[in-house]
Automatic annotation (TrEMBL), chain A:
<dbReference type="GO" id="GO:0055085">
    <property type="term" value="P:transmembrane transport"/>
</dbReference>
<dbReference type="InterPro" id="IPR051393">
    <property type="entry name" value="ABC_transporter_permease"/>
</dbReference>
<keyword id="KW-0812">Transmembrane</keyword>
<feature type="transmembrane region" description="Helical">
    <location>
        <begin position="195"/>
        <end position="214"/>
    </location>
</feature>
<keyword id="KW-0472">Membrane</keyword>
<feature type="transmembrane region" description="Helical">
    <location>
        <begin position="288"/>
        <end position="312"/>
    </location>
</feature>
<feature type="transmembrane region" description="Helical">
    <location>
        <begin position="131"/>
        <end position="155"/>
    </location>
</feature>
<dbReference type="InterPro" id="IPR035906">
    <property type="entry name" value="MetI-like_sf"/>
</dbReference>
<feature type="transmembrane region" description="Helical">
    <location>
        <begin position="235"/>
        <end position="256"/>
    </location>
</feature>
UniProtKB/TrEMBL annotation, chain B:
<keyword id="KW-0813">Transport</keyword>
<feature type="transmembrane region" description="Helical">
    <location>
        <begin position="195"/>
        <end position="220"/>
    </location>
</feature>
<keyword id="KW-1133">Transmembrane helix</keyword>
<dbReference type="GO" id="GO:0005886">
    <property type="term" value="C:plasma membrane"/>
</dbReference>
<protein>
    <submittedName>
        <fullName>Putative aldouronate transport system permease protein</fullName>
    </submittedName>
</protein>
<feature type="transmembrane region" description="Helical">
    <location>
        <begin position="155"/>
        <end position="175"/>
    </location>
</feature>
<feature type="domain" description="ABC transmembrane type-1">
    <location>
        <begin position="88"/>
        <end position="289"/>
    </location>
</feature>
<feature type="transmembrane region" description="Helical">
    <location>
        <begin position="271"/>
        <end position="291"/>
    </location>
</feature>
<dbReference type="InterPro" id="IPR035906">
    <property type="entry name" value="MetI-like_sf"/>
</dbReference>
Length: 322, 306
């Protein structure tokens, strides 16, 4: 199973000389002009809101002046990148982004797999359905609401978690005001919210496992655990690899919203990540060129990571995005 | 939990009896799943229960699981707040219009991409999927929106993120696999144009995928917050999520004002947060059974290599 099929199918294209190719193209255009008409608005969308920003990213190498516009502003070479790499805050940003992201990956990658494997063992269909329905629900809670739920539960005075801690004779903790606890709060809230959603893909993979494999395992006297290790896990491996590739490729692009909303002056030391920094210096301080440079740096790292992980995966497991 | 009891009846069902080890394993499975169930469900129940309890009960921490001194004071406060009502109305508008625009644009590109007769579809597909891998970034996008004079207009929430690449892939896969080629050939012989074929044959046959697209875009638009944060300045344009942020998050003070007449108001403000959370999630909650079904369906279509 390939979770995402982002590649065009080059295999089906007929090999033809370029002359024939254009002839055919002309014929298709004449006969099916309505299809081409149809794609104009969406293509315009992609040009305007996706490709034009990519072109605008040259701003990172220019000193943006509002009156001159992007293309008229003077070139400054790699000035903003030098500024970025020499900024003492830079390494903190990288560290915060990476740590938070890796911590998140370490929790949100295996837990849905475990949930799917457990659910697959359940024989009562009603119980299985109930667990799925309920664990899937938090995914649809908006980030703003999610963050306020976190705040309500972790509030220093009335928060339920502190009430429980007090009842057990422990001191109250200001979870959101403590930089050492910020990452755990973020990641475990994420686990709470997305595990049910992420597990769907694995359940589908498990449903697709050849039943004769289970029969064979049963005849061979395999225990449930042996069956999971030898039949279930190989069955979901392709899906898991694709999900892992995508997650690693996105390591530097952590969601902005939740981090930004959870931030406060007390936890900033560990909660300031690249995307929140770009927002602050770019839009709040109007330092467009520098913010663009930071953003561009981030996008490039992401692209490199994705391509690299995909290549490695193709080598060792024959699963890849393209 | 009822679930644990069902384990007892299971060994007799299978032809080969489970070993003792397997039964213990199954028992542990049910216990773990029940714990997960409680961990997910409890916070949700707690919020709903608090929202219909009295302000005093909530503020003094008396609510544990079920509502205490049932009252709808929190909801009354929510619905008498103009800012929230305006936000609610705006969000409904953004969700309806945004979803309509998104679904139309997605179908408009996914359908031609699914056709063999559409020349250059591989190039176009690459053109689209590349945006999945690389983006210009926040500021360059902001400057485009600004250049188009969309800042602080409703269009800023409807257009810049109108198409999700992943949804295009899903829709294309669906059209490719469920609209038979012969149908199109037959229609073509009868002199049916491509657009007419799309409107009168393909669309009626594609209700499941249209439901998937509608729900995915609608939920995303309803929950969206970031675009409004960066593109909007006027409060009368704010969607609900932005209003929520100022009420739920920015006003969140664990601090204690000591004027005694303020205690009551403070209690009410605290209670209102619970009610507001429920009210804000209501549209999604009502549609949840459909949403769940079609989201799962969408994910499964997306997972077939197209």
């Amino acid at each position: 199973m390939k979770a995402v099929s982002v590649q065009p199918q080059t295999g089906t294209r007929e090999r033809s000389t370029s002359k024939n190719y254009w002839k055919e193209a002309k014929k298709s255009l004449r006969k099916h002009w309505q299809l081409y008409l149809l794609v104009i608005p969406p293509v315009l969308f992609f040009i305007l809101f996706k490709y034009l920003p990519m072109a605008n990213a040259v701003l990172a190498f220019k000193n943006y002046q509002v009156t001159k516009g992007i293309w008229g502003s003077p070139w400054v070479g790699t000035k903003y990148f030098d500024m970025l790499f020499n900024n003492p805050q830079f390494w903190t940003l990288i560290k915060n982004t990476l740590f938070l992201s890796l911590y998140q990956l370490a929790a949100t990658f295996p837990i849905p797999i475990i949930l799917a494997l457990l659910l697959n063992e359940v024989r009562s269909l009603r119980f299985k359905k109930a667990v799925q329905l309920i664990t899937y629900a938090p995914f649809f809670i908006s980030t703003v609401v999610m963050v306020s739920i976190i705040m309500i539960f972790l509030a220093p005075r009335l928060g339920l978690l502190n009430v429980i801690l007090n009842a057990m004779g422990m001191e109250s903790t200001n979870f959101l005001g403590d930089p050492t606890k910020f990452r755990s709060v973020y990641v475990w809230a994420e686990v709470w919210q997305t595990t049910g959603y992420s597990c769907v893909i694995y359940l589908a993979a498990l449903a697709g496992v050849d039943p004769s494999l289970y029969e064979a395992a049963k005849v061979d006297g395999a225990s449930r655990l042996q069956k999971i290790i030898n039949v279930d896990i190989p069955g979901i491996l392709p899906a898991a690899v694709i999900i892992l590739i995508l997650s690693v490729g996105n390591i530097m692009s952590l969601g902005f919203e939740k981090v930004y909303l959870l931030q406060n002056p007390l936890n900033l030391q560990s909660s300031e990540i690249i995307s929140t920094y770009v927002y602050k210096i770019g839009l709040l301080n109007a330092n467009y060129s520098f913010a663009t440079a930071v953003g561009l740096f981030n996008s490039v790292i992401n692209l490199i990571l994705l391509v690299a992980v995909n290549a490695v995966s193709r080598r060792i497991s024959e699963n890849s995005l393209w | 939990m009822a679930a644990v009891q069902t384990t007892a009846s299971i060994p007799t069902r299978g032809k080969i009896r489970d070993s003792a080890g397997d039964r213990i394993f199954l028992g542990i499975t049910y216990i773990l799943l029940s714990l997960i169930l409680v961990a997910v469900l409890y916070p949700l129940i707690y919020i709903v229960s608090s929202s219909i309890s009295s302000p005093q009960a909530v503020a003094s921490g008396k609510v544990w699981l079920w509502p205490v001194d049932i009252s709808f004071a929190g909801y009354k406060t929510v619905f008498s707040n103009d800012q929230i009502l305006v936000g609610y109305g705006n969000s409904l508008f953004y969700t309806c219009c945004g979803t309509l625009i998104s679904v139309i644009l997605t179908v408009a590109i996914a359908y031609p991409l699914s056709k063999k007769t559409f020349f250059g579809r591989n190039v176009l597909m690459m053109f689209i999927t590349f945006t999945f891998l690389f983006s210009g970034g926040l500021i360059p996008t902001y400057l485009v929106v600004k250049g188009l004079h969309l800042i602080d207009t409703r269009w800023a929430l409807l257009l810049p993120n109108a198409i999700f690449v992943f949804q295009v892939i899903i829709a294309r896969t669906f059209f490719k696999s469920s609209i038979p080629e012969e149908l199109n050939d037959a229609a073509e012989i009868d002199g049916c144009s491509d657009i007419r074929f799309l409107l009168s044959v393909v669309i009626p046959l594609s209700k499941p995928i249209l439901a998937v697209l509608t729900l995915v875009y609608a939920v995303a638009q309803w929950n969206a917050f970031f675009d409004a944060l960066i593109y909007l300045k006027s409060q009368h344009l704010y969607p609900l999520q932005l209003t929520l942020r100022s009420i739920l998050i920015q006003n969140f003070s664990g601090g204690n004002m000591d004027a005694s007449e303020q205690v009551k108001r403070q209690e009410l403000a605290y209670l209102m947060k619970y009610s507001l959370i429920v009210v804000a999630s209501l549209p999604v909650l009502i549609l949840y059974p459909f949403i769940q079904r079609y989201f799962v369906q969408g994910m499964l279509i997306g997972s077939i290599k197209g």
